[in-house]
Each structure stands twice: as C-alpha cells, then as structure tokens.
Amino acid sequence: MTATTISEATRARFDREVAKYPPEQKRSAVMALLSIVQQEQGWVSPESERGVAEYLGLPTIAVHEVTTFYNMYNQRPVGKYKLNVCTNLPCKLRRGQQALEHLEKKLGIGVGDTTADGLFTLYPSECLGACADAPVMLVNDRTMCSFMEDDKLDQLIDGLRQVEGKTA
User: Fold this and answer.
1) Domains present along the chain, CATH in parentheses
2) Which family does it belong to (predicted)?
C-alpha cells in the first residue's frame, strides 16, 4: 500500500483522523492510521508503512519506528485471534506464565507462532493494567479477559473454535 494505492475508503478514514490535528501536526495521526491499516489488513506490512509515510509526508523510518515500538501493531500476519498473555511480575506471581504455557500446550504452538488453521497467534505481553485480575490476557488488542486460570483458558479457546466451526 503506497499513497497511490490507498483505497478511497481508506483514504477517507485517514482524512478523518488527520483532520483532528492542526495541519502542522498531522504526523500526530500516525498511530491512528496504522490502526486503520491493521484493522483492514490484519497487520502492518512494510508497504503499508510506506503508504502511511507518503500520506503524512514523513520518512518511512519515522513510521517504522512507531510500528516496531508498540506491540499492538502486527508486523507480520497473525491468526484471527491474537492472544496476549500478561507475564509481567504481578501476573507472573498469580500464574500468568503458567497460563501462557498452558495455551502453548493446548494450541500446540510456541510463543509468536500461529496455529496451522490460522485461528490463534500467541504472545506474552507486558503489563495490561489489570493486576488485580491476574492472570489477564488481551484478545485481538481489544478484549480484556480476567482471572484466566486453565479452565477459563480452555473454555475460551474451545468456544472460539466452536464459533469458527473447528475443533482441536
């Protein structure tokens, strides 16, 4: 996606976000534009970074630095359900690491991998800001799940597979 290959619908969404900032500060919309790209494509490719950079009049490296700094941007294709399990100290003390390991076994993948059916990608996460609900996880960067002991993890995975018409 370069500035010339951005669809009209995407360009309209970009325009709405950039309009929220003074013209001389349009670069402030970079995170919002990257989120739009990810919503539409599932990840932010190097080509998409170039498109955002061209649109905003920035060097590509300036956009790439944002993409690589924040873990909410997928730099490669991920499964339909991206699972981020908090392994920061408070969650770790309340079984966060065990939750991650349980999911590795249940899904048959390692950290950073995607299941063969393309449904799940698993990542550890830094603090998700819900320490009292540990262990916690974030699904698709949007839905917080609390108190994720093994039985709740199993219910979540099995339920998502059922919704997708797939079984383990």
Assistant:
1) 8-69 (1.10.10.1590), 81-166 (3.40.30.10)
2) Belongs to the complex I 24 kDa subunit family.
| β-pair partners for 120 | 81
Check whether 145 is labelled as a binding-site residue.
no
DSSP 83: E
* Residue 71 near residue 126, CB atoms below 8 Å: yes
86 labelled ligand-binding: yes
CA distance 37 to 41: 6
Does residue 168 surpass a pLDDT of 80?
Answer: no
Mean pLDDT of 22-42: 94
Has residue 5 got a pLDDT over 80?
no
Distance from C-alpha of 124 to C-alpha of 90, rounded to nearest angstrom? 14
Supply the pTM of this predicted model. Answer: 0.81
The answer to whether 60 and 114 are in contact (CB under 8 A) is no
Are residues 38 and 74 in contact, defined by beta-carbon separation less than 8 angstroms? yes
Average pLDDT over residues 5-13: 88
Q: Give the chain's mean pLDDT.
A: 93
Mean pLDDT score, 45-55? 95
Distance, CA of 116 to CA of 6 (rounded, Å):
31
